[in-house]
């Protein structure tokens, strides 16, 4: 019986938002007001598509974007945590479910040699066109009113668990590690033996605290973390059970 670790990416594995970090490539490291103000709630992927068009039209090429993205710092303790998970793959399956995109995550994980730690990465598909534009697509379509239209992390998690069950893989426990508002939906999918680990001071922690105050707590246990060392301490306890 293995444990399944589910990670968000932005502000969880890395200590920044990868989509806003790319603005460092823009002229004067900022976007024009018209572009910045064009974002509509729930339509982040389309907004980022416009950002990538702007970058390309201002002469920003793939190699410059890659250099910039691989300077993003990992969250405190995360390098040690991912090393620990990599050394104990017989105990842990590990996936990423993220609203970033496949190109950014691939660059960052490969530059730090962490791509082998993760069994699968579920994120918005991305690729460079023949003319050098980075294009990003919605991950899937879904009917969840709580999630942005391009990604419902609960649907991703449920489909992954179902696929694993079909192959005879049943997890002793799921540990969900995240920070954002869009991590709440998958956390409500977790059962009583599972663990949600929200990052302290971020939206997921606030939303879970509000649910507890409203006497509508989630079914799983909740453990807060401020550095990935906290997560590693918990995983070490798990492996000793």
From TrEMBL:
Keyword tags: Hydrolase, Magnesium, Metal-binding
- UniProt cross-references to InterPro entries, sorted A to Z: HAD-like_sf, HAD_hydro_PyrdxlP_Pase-like, HAD_sf, Pase_PHOSPHO-typ
UniProt cross-references to SUPFAM superfamilies, sorted A to Z? HAD-like
* Active-site positions on this chain: 8 (nucleophile), 10 (proton donor)
Q: Which residues bind substrate?
A: 19, 99
Q: Where does Mg(2+) bind?
A: 8, 10, 179
A Pfam family found in this protein is Put_Phosphatase
GO MF entry, a single one: phosphatase activity
- Domain of life of the organism encoding this protein: Eukaryota
- What Gene3D superfamilies would the database entry show? HAD superfamily/HAD-like
Cofactor(s) in the UniProt record: Mg(2+)
Q: Which family does it belong to?
A: Belongs to the HAD-like hydrolase superfamily. PHOSPHO family.
Q: What is this protein called?
A: PHOP2 phosphatase
Q: Which organism is it from?
A: Eubucco bourcierii (red-headed barbet)
Encoding gene (name): Phospho2
């Amino acid at each position: 019986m293995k444990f399944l670790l589910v990670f968000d990416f932005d502000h969880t594995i890395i200590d920044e938002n990868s989509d806003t970090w790319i603005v460092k490539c823009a002229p004067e490291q900022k976007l024009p007001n018209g572009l910045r103000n064009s974002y509509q709630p729930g339509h982040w992927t389309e907004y980022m598509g416009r950002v990538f068009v702007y970058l390309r039209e201002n002469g920003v090429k793939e190699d410059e974007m890659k250099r910039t993205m691989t300077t993003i710092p990992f969250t405190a303790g995360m390098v040690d945590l991912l090393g620990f998970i990599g050394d104990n793959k017989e105990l842990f399956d590990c996936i990423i479910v993220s609203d970033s995109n496949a190109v950014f995550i691939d660059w960052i994980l490969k530059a730090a040699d962490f791509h082998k730690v993760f069994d699968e990465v579920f994120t918005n598909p991305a690729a460079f066109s023949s003319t050098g534009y980075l294009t990003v697509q919605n991950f899937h379509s879904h009917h969840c009113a709580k999630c942005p239209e391009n990604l419902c992390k609960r649907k991703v998690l449920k489909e992954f668990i179902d696929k694993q069950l079909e192959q005879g893989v049943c997890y002793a426990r799921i540990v969900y590690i995240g920070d954002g508002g869009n991590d709440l939906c998958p956390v409500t999918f977790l059962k009583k033996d599972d663990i949600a680990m929200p990052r302290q001071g971020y939206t997921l922690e606030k939303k879970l605290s509000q649910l507890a105050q409203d006497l509508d707590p989630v079914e799983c246990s909740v453990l807060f973390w401020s550095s990935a060392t906290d997560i590693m301490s918990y995983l070490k306890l798990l492996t000793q059970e």
